[in-house]
Each structure stands twice: as structure tokens, then as C-alpha cells.
Amino acid sequence: MDKNSRAEAYTKAILDQLNAEIGASDYTVKSLAGALEKDYNTFRRWVIGEKPMPMVVLWAAIDQLGIPQLVFAQRAQDRYENSAKE
What we know:
The protein is an all-alpha fold. It has one domain: 434 Repressor (Amino-terminal Domain). It has 5 helices and no strands. Helix 1 packs across helix 5 and helix 2 packs across helix 3 (40-47). The longest helix is centred in the first third of the chain and has 21 residues, at 3-23.
């Protein structure tokens, strides 16, 4: 796997983890966007990977969900490693 492919796969793992965390929370994408004071349509595009999500928004979302950043990072890393095995 080349450098760009690895970066894309890791980005996908991060977004998949964010979606999983949203799904496991009391938030919806729309309500999380509101809590972060972000436009819903823009936030949705970030969450589905249509547009690159600014890191500051990712970390704010994780904080709003109440997940320690290192825990989220490890879960995303585990997801990435599991997807690489497939």
C-alpha cells in the first residue's frame, strides 16, 4: 500500500470511528453539529468524508462526545489495523 493509500485508509478509519461514536452517543450528526455551532450540511459533509474535516473540529466533536482524545485515537488506530488485515 502506498503512502496516499495508507493516508486515505487511516482517514476512513477515523471517520468511521467518529460515526460509530456518534451512533453510540445520545447525539445525531445534526445535534452534534448544533452543539459545535457548525452548519449541519458542512458538518455532515465532513463526517461522511465528502470534504476534509479540520482537525480542530474533529477534536471538538470528540470532546463534545465526552471521549478522551487518546482513547479515540487508539480506537481509530485499531479500526485501521483491522481494516488493513481484510
